[in-house]
């Protein structure tokens, strides 16, 4: 059991003309906390007010004592009740941790889904002939689409498109699919295999 703790009331000169809060309960109540908060706010407002003499205006010692009083009430409430903010922050950390793990799982699922879709397109391309049926655009290994920004490469819907690629586009496609640079003919064969075209 916690020992009783007496909180000393704040001191203020009578000339400041402010009502000092009553002695707080033990442990302090929400009303005691509200009274201490209002007391400090009134003192701070009076210290900023114009038209008051130095005797009517709270000095820095009285403001510091009001802060001390408010902090003592807050600290005592934390000791007696526990720190609800700390408990809430702990729950938020647990939730954030779970959300982080879910994000990782979703990223993995998206990567698997992209890989499956790429493989399906590749299989569909094997069934196409590139003359009567067009080929699907297959994403690069990093998941980006070759025909979209930042690559902006021409689509390879037909066999003739692969065979007529200039060296710059051929290099870009091969780099995106992880095909090593080499002879143009070998690079074209590797590219056709990567996107599922039949020889």
From TrEMBL:
Protein name, per record: Uncharacterized protein
Organism lineage: Eukaryota, Fungi, Dikarya, Ascomycota, Saccharomycotina
């Amino acid at each position: 059991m916690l020992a009783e703790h007496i909180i000393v009331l704040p001191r203020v000169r009578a000339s400041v003309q402010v009502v000092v809060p009553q002695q707080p309960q033990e442990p302090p109540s929400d009303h005691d906390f509200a009274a201490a908060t209002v007391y400090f706010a009134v003192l701070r407002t009076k210290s900023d007010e114009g038209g008051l003499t130095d005797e009517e205006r709270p000095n820095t010692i009285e403001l510091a004592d009001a802060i001390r009083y408010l902090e003592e009430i807050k600290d005592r409430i934390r000791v007696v009740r526990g720190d609800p903010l700390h408990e809430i922050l702990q729950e938020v950390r647990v939730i954030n941790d779970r959300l982080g793990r879910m994000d990782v799982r979703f990223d993995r699922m998206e990567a698997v889904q992209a890989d499956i879709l790429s493989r399906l397109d590749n299989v569909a391309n094997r069934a196409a002939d590139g003359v009567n049926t067009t080929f699907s655009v297959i994403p690069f290994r990093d998941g980006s689409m070759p025909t979209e920004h930042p690559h902006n490469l021409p689509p390879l819907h037909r066999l003739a498109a692969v065979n007529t690629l200039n060296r710059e586009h051929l290099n870009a496609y091969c780099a995106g699919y992880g095909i090593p640079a080499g002879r143009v003919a070998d690079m074209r064969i590797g590219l056709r295999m990567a996107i599922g075209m039949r020889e």
